[in-house]
Design brief:
The chain is α/β, with parallel strands linked by helices and 337 residues long. It has helices at 18-27, 42-56, 85-94, 96-115, 147-163, 194-200, 203-207, 234-244, 265-275, 287-294, 302-314, 323-336; strands spanning 5-9, 29-34, 62-64, 66-68, 71-72, 121-122, 167-168, 170-173, 189-190, 213-216, 220-221, 250-252, 280-282. α1 (18-27) crosses α2 (42-56), α4 (96-115) packs parallel to α5 and α4 (96-115) crosses α12. Residues 25-296 form the Glycoside hydrolase family 3 N-terminal domain.
């Protein structure tokens, strides 16, 4: 079998082009990620997922950002519009047990939804803990403004996905909640002391450190590494993510094409690998950018390969719950929230 490379790639449209098929076949990304541009109707989504896997000749992971709220790639009429993390957190703030149940139920519904198309990884939960005045790039995607709420709701969301056979990706490690800029467009710089980060921003990730996958943030933490954002910082990844947080799972970069990162796409990919991420994530499906990425990422080996194998081994478990009853319970909960 051809060895996979340390990358997850997107594609340009509703179906893969002959050029994309040949490219994926020769370059062997470990997995793929879908965005709104890849979505038109149910049969098309399932066909696209199947063709992506067929292009690499194996059951490659297929990811999506299906959070609810404004970050929901598959929308009505294909799938229901789900509430944001903040809306679920509002339920929690009124009644803790109901909030936790709501987070679990919604994730369990995501699993029902996504597996029908063959999508088996959801980039959820958002474990960022926003502070007042921070960029709206996180905003109402967060469950709350305190680490306890975010930890408990994030854990419930992750468990709901796994109960339905979909694996979660925690984001954005070690924390995007203090970013006063949108990292899609510019580089956020966080200047608070490390002790404050350890008290407020890092705890949800510490609590969920045994999850199999996490995504980094393109944020500079000046008290840890003033020169590099977390995604490309060997110090942040070694000392904070692998050290203080204790996460030993598969570490994905946030999107390589986001403008918080400096340099060409190829330079960004090389810096991500050098910083210690296991997987370079490139989302926009632009062929010349993907060609730059593949020239700068290695074949999966060593610890990174072992982590991908652990992820692959975890696919397939399912609690056998009844979708109609789960959906009815969730809808009833929202009706009275």
């Amino acid at each position: 079998m051809t060895e996979s490379k340390s990358m997850i790639l997107g594609c340009s449209g509703h179906s893969i082009t002959p050029e994309e098929r040949s490219f994926y076949q020769s370059e062997q990304p470990w997995g793929f990620i879908l965005f709104g541009r890849n979505i038109s109707e149910p049969a098309q989504i399932a066909d696209l997922v199947a063709s992506l896997r067929d292009s690499v000749g194996r059951d490659a992971p297929v990811l999506i950002d299906q959070e609810g709220g404004r970050v929901q790639r598959i929308r009505p009429p294909i799938l229901p519009h789900y509430p944001s993390g903040q809306a679920l957190g509002d339920i929690y703030r009124k009644n803790r047990e109901q909030g936790l149940r709501a987070a679990w139920l919604m994730s369990r519904l995501h699993a029902f939804d996504l597996l029908k198309f063959g999508i088996n990884v959801d980039c959820l939960p958002v474990l960022d803990v926003p502070v007042e005045g921070s960029s709206n790039v996180i905003g109402n995607r967060a469950y709350g403004g305190d680490p306890v709420t975010v930890t408990e709701m994030g854990r419930a969301a992750a468990e709901g996905l796994k109960a339905g056979g979909v694996l979660p990706v925690m984001k954005h490690m070690p924390g995007h909640g203090r970013g006063f800029a949108d990292s899609h467009h510019e580089l956020p710089v966080v200047t608070v002391p490390r002790t404050e980060l350890e008290a407020h921003d890092f705890p949800p990730f510490v609590a969920l450190k045994d999850e199999l996958m996490a995504m980094t943030c393109h944020v500079v933490f000046t008290d840890i590494d003033p020169a590099n954002p977390a995604t490309t910082s060997r110090k942040v990844i070694d000392e904070i993510i692998r050290g203080h947080i204790g996460f030993q799972g598969l570490l994905l970069s946030d999107d390589t094409s986001m403008n918080a990162l400096a340099g060409t796409i190829g330079e960004r990919a090389a810096n991500i690998v050098a910083g210690g991420c296991d997987i370079v994530l490139h989302c926009n499906g632009v062929m010349d950018e993907m060609q730059q990425v593949v020239r700068n990422v290695p074949v999966l080996t060593g610890a990174a390969l072992a982590r991908t194998k652990a992820v692959e081994a975890a696919f397939g478990s399912n609690d056998g719950a009844d979708e109609a009853s789960i959906r009815a319970e969730f809808d009833a909960m929202l009706a009275v929230a």
